[in-house]
Amino acid sequence: MEDKTEGQPIERRKLFNDWATLVVGQEKKVFQMHKGLLCSVSPYFKAALEGDFKEAQEKVIELTEDDSKTMEYFQFWLYAQSILDKEETVSSIEWDLLVELYVLGEARMIATLQNQVIDLMIRKATKENALPNNETMYDIFGKTCPGSPLRKFIVECSARLCVIPDWTWDFVDGAEKSQRDFLKDLVLEMYIDRAKKQEQDFWKIRCSYHTHAEGDARCSKDTPNPEKVLLRN
Questions:
Q1: Per-residue confidence at 166, pLDDT binned at 50, 70, 90?
Q2: pLDDT class for 29, splitting at 50, 70, 90?
Q3: Which residues is 22 bridged to in the sheet?
Q4: Which residues pair with 62 in a beta bridge?
Q5: pLDDT at 230 over 60
Q6: DSSP string covering the chain, please?
């Protein structure tokens, strides 16, 4: 007979059998999370903690380039499967934190986290009728790879709102010329040829900005946007 507790198979309980330690940022802040949970959501953590690396033996991973505040939100998400706590709203969470969470998810191959961040961004843009500031835009295109769904969302959202932000033209020193040219060309093309004067319900097409494995079910267009407001040109 299968051993169960509270209706959950024993394999589920094994997620909580062991701990892993993440040492984050230059200040080396220590986070302890269940090893099984980390491995279940991230191929990166699975390879590090169950492979032939020293991290698997020591159960310690150093993430010096990550930010401790972002890791606090990731830790909450890992256990709650929600980015926002009960008292938080889409207005109270900052764009830069959402971007850092997405970057963390992309780097560690955590598609579920990436998708939840995209959904919150759509809700935030819908509610505030605004996009991230220049500094956050630099982070989006400096910390993600070409073809990133986050880049796709930001560019298409800018074009369909018929807004070309300052960051498109005025890059900080050190920005790659190819990055600058790519953004200029793409935004202009979408602005001129594809932007239409009509409602754009980004919530209904949010699945096109998600990361799904082949064969996964797609998001329902009929699920209502919690903010119940459409982005408009």
A1: low
A2: very high
A3: 31, 61
A4: 23
A5: no
A6: ---EETTEEHHHHGGGS-EEEEEETTTTEEEEEEHHHHHHH-HHHHHHHHSSSHHHHHTEEEETTS-HHHHHHHHHHHHHS-SS-TT--TTTS-HHHHHHHHHHHHHTT-HHHHHHHHHHHHHHHHHHT----HHHHHHHHHHS-TT-HHHHHHHHHHHHTT---GGGT-PPTT--HHHHHHHHHHHHHIIIII--SS-B-TTTTGGGGS---TTPPPPPTTSPPTT---B--
Beta carbons within 8 Å of 224's beta carbon, 6+ residues apart? none
Distances (CA, A) of 57 to 20, 41, 45, 52, 228: 10, 20, 13, 8, 49
pLDDT digits over 182-217, tens only? 566 566 666 665 555 444 678 888 888 899 888 888
Tokens 């190819």 — which residue? 178
Q: Which amino acid is at 26?
A: Q
